[in-house]
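Late entry, written up from scratch paper. The run itself happened at the end of the previous shift, but nothing got recorded in the book at the time, so transcribing now.
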Amino acid sequence: MVEQGTHERWDCRAGSRVRGVLLFVPLALTAFGIAAWMLVLATFAPAVFRRRRRGLLHAWGRAGLALSGVSLEAHGLEHLSAPGGRIVLFNHQSLLDLFVLTALWPERGVVVYKREFHRVPIIGRIMRELDLIAVDRSDRDRAIESMRAAGRRVRERGEVLLVAPEGTRSKAPGLLDFKRGPFHVAADTGLPAVLMVIRGVRELMPKGRLVTRTGRARVDVLAPVSTAEWDADDLDGPVAEVRAMFLRFLPDAGRAPPAATTGPGRPDPTGPALTAGSE
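Output as recorded:
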């Protein structure tokens, strides 16, 4: 068990919101503009769209981060590009996660998202065109079946499924309790689980905010965890083990975290850094 205050800290160097306020309209226009172009391609040139979908997602995410004044440092991206299907578990802190995830979008990547996103103009339509996986959280049985179908699809197609085990964002800092759904998928399929730890984005854009502060975000993608021995009828151990790995980097949402500061001189367990612009 990771004790309070022992997580590896990261200084996001949060700045002012002046840039976010001044560039909010250009950011919104750029985000919707790229999404609209993706929709045009998907409608009139589907072959081109399928061939360029990853590059378009990268452009969407990187443009959003650049206009927000957020630099992104990423470690361990080779674990996303390895061949074969896998389940990527990431912590969900902020709407800014959307730019971070798309800036680093893996080949064959798909994501589980709330069906409510279908109500968002252009964005909802493009998420369907991207062949992502919608889950109806208003109906538990449908949600479970959607997750099982996602697992079957990922295994058959060799895709990379990105899913947030917390299920939602938290107003409090730190890691929420994990839902069992993603762990059932991993146990049912036997696919390796890859942990993606996102830090800094909550401080730059907390839940309920639409304007970002300038600063830095960091992503650590850890080596795959074997799920071959996981038992779908007894997931308490795997859930606790995986959550403890996240708590090496993040505070527990149930406890008051210390102020985020950089730990100078601490070894980096994930290897050399790559910028968001690196492939």
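Residues 1-5, 256-279 have pLDDT under 50 and may be disordered.
(Scratch paper discarded after transcription.)
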